[in-house]
Amino acid sequence: MEIITISPRGFGANTYALTEDGKTAILIDPAQPRVESELIKRGLLPAYVLLTHCHFDHVGGVSALQASGAKVFCSEAEKPLLGTQADLFDMFGAPRLPYHIDETLTDGEEKNLGGVLVKMLWTPGHTAGSACYLITAKDGGRYLFTGDTLFEGSIGRTDFPTGNIGEMRASLKKLAALKGDYPVYAGHNDPTTLDHERKTNPFMQE
């Protein structure tokens, strides 16, 4: 499986495009409308969108991808936050581009999306419905996409609407308890590994 990082221009989150066949892609947190043109450059069609949470800097490209036929997923607990103050569009004065959730996932639920096994882990703290995605590729490779729950050496903020530091601590313990090591792709900053964060991230050692 190829993992393509589309870095934001200006303020935004990292977007990840996952492809097994070089033709279709799973997008994680398409942050900006230009994500669609980046896919076109690479000859990829958007098939699925996985949202870790609904903050404006993670969803700016969803509308265009959904219009192109992509099916949009998020956690069951995050869906009610769309269109509320919890998505931060109003707080930061960002323009809303409409989209809707096609399907929600419950904690631990698995979906086979085009041969890629996706497991949703509910990790509240940054928002009440924040999620991480444990991805298993066709070749058995496993990858963890953590949104704004876990960063290299840090964590996401808990002072926005529906954020909660106690829930964040519990979510970090949940990630730390996963068996084995995984490459970690976060919503912001550089990739890391789960083992590295277990050993060095002060927030995972509390």
Structure description:
The structure is a single chain. The protein is an alpha/beta fold and 206 residues long. It has a single domain (2-204), classed as Ribonuclease Z/Hydroxyacylglutathione hydrolase-like (Metallo-beta-lactamase, Chain A, 4-Layer Sandwich), CATH 3.60.15. 20% of the residues lie in helices and 30% in strands. It contains 6 helices and 14 strands. The protein has helices at residues 34-41, 56-59, 62-67, 89-92, 165-176, 194-200; strands at residues 2-6, 15-19, 24-28, 45-50, 71-75, 103-105, 110-113, 116-122, 131-136, 142-147, 150-151, 154-155, 183-186, 192-193. The strands form 3 sheets. It has a 6-stranded mixed beta sheet with strand order 1-2-3-4-5-6. The longest helix is centred in the C-terminal third of the chain and has 12 residues, at 165-176. It is globular and about 45 Å long.
Would you kindly provide a brief summary of this structure?
Helix content is 20%, strand content 30%. With 206 residues, the chain is of the alpha/beta class.
